[in-house]
Amino acid sequence: MLDYAAFPQQRQELIHRRLLKNGSVVCAVLAEELNVSEHTIRRDLQELSQQGICKKVYGGAVLSALRNDNFVDRKQSNYDEKKQIAQKCIEFIQDNGCVFLDASTTNLALAKALPKEIKGTFVTNSPEIAVSLLQLEYCEVILLGGEIHRDTGGCIGGMAIQQIQEMIFDQVFIGGCAMDHEVGLTGFCYADCEFKKIVIKQANQVIVPLTKNKISMVARYVVARSEEIDIIVMSTALDATLSSQFKNNIRFYHTNQEK
């Protein structure tokens, strides 16, 4: 058996493989398994974090998310999975409610999937989502204004923020780049993440549609802590170990599950 205490490069390669497989690692577990001190593992994680491979969290580390392309390019990524998640999200939308859809590609899939007979008010900061919502005959559609941010595909500036602060939402559907049980929902664009935080403050219920490639990962800026999220909708169920790590307030749903 390899003496990992004597071979730091091989030790870090093993840790990297564990991060890719599980999304996170725990210092104490690795230290015992590899027969090294927790201090040694923390040094390894520091080295890996400097390479951009992971982000250190209390007691261990989580895999770093990769920065996404702009809104136009992301629309085709995981397209079928997003459509499945969108169909599940429809089950949670309250009739005659006031619902906010932020500028995410999964929310675009949701807007396109909404049944024609649905009633209510839909607010969005995405012109493309607004165009899809206009196909709904019985819905009021409100598009927030201002400059359109190219990467996010939505308005996230002062005008949009001012409008949001005058609204109260029954539900908001918020996208993100990564989700971790300790750090919460995170993203790469600082202005967009700050905009999402303001939206969440105006919401009675926060729903996060999440593709499976974003779970147990961390991006650069926090959007919402786990305790601020009510529902996460995914295409597949989390395994029991990972599910148990999340806050009890979050309800997880997947596309093959009854509401």
Automatic annotation (TrEMBL):
SUPFAM superfamilies: NagB/RpiA/CoA transferase-like (SSF100950), Winged helix' DNA-binding domain (SSF46785). Keywords: DNA-binding, Repressor, Transcription, Transcription regulation. Transmembrane segments: none annotated. Gene3D superfamilies: Winged helix-like DNA-binding domain superfamily/Winged helix DNA-binding domain. Coiled coil: none annotated. It comes from the Bacteria. Residues 8-63 form the HTH deoR-type domain. InterPro entries: Carb_Metab_HTH_regulators, DeoR-like_C, DeoR_HTH, NagB/RpiA_transferase-like, Tscrpt_reg_HTH_DeoR_CS, WH-like_DNA-bd_sf, WH_DNA-bd_sf. One of its GO terms (molecular function) is DNA-binding transcription factor activity. This is DeoR/GlpR family (GlpR).
